[in-house]
Specification:
Elements (H helix, E strand, L loop, with lengths): L2 H12 L3 H12 L1 H6 L2 E6 L2 E6 L6 E3 L4 E2 L1 H20 L5 E10 L9 E10 L3 E10 L4 E12 L17
Antiparallel strand pairs: 1-2, 2-6, 3-4, 5-8, 6-7, 7-8
Length: 168
Amino acid sequence: MSDWADLMNDLNKLQHSDAVTTAWQFTEQVPHGRDLGMQVVSVDQGQVCMRLTPQSWMFAHKDTKEICTSVLYSLADSAGGLAVFAGALELMPIATLDLRMDYLRPAIGDRALSAVATCRHLSDDVAFIHCDILSEGNRELLATANATFMRNTQGQQLHAGGPGKESA
């Protein structure tokens, strides 16, 4: 079975769990994630996999179909933020403090992108995240990211039921 089929099986197993419900709602609450069409594939303790299918308007160069680097930043930031929640096992306001990416090769838009973000360490105030962005199919590593997120920031409280709704 392919890696992608394994990931889809994981999603099917988790589709009714609280973690995946929360993850789906997270992607709906973050406008750029929703607008880019990011999808949550799997959520595990401290690790998240997200998928993005490139669209032609995301290409920096239509001739080469190279995806704009800002799309990869958005994917890494979203997956990283969700990995904070998966690692902490609770929802709280967070803010990206730092996000650094190393690009290993261009992301060509003929294949979907996968981002696998892992929470490496949590302190009371900061989460440390590593994220790999891969080209789907051949699982070619396109970029790596390291990020820090401030935890318990002042801001709107996130609830599993969506904005303004209390979680059960």
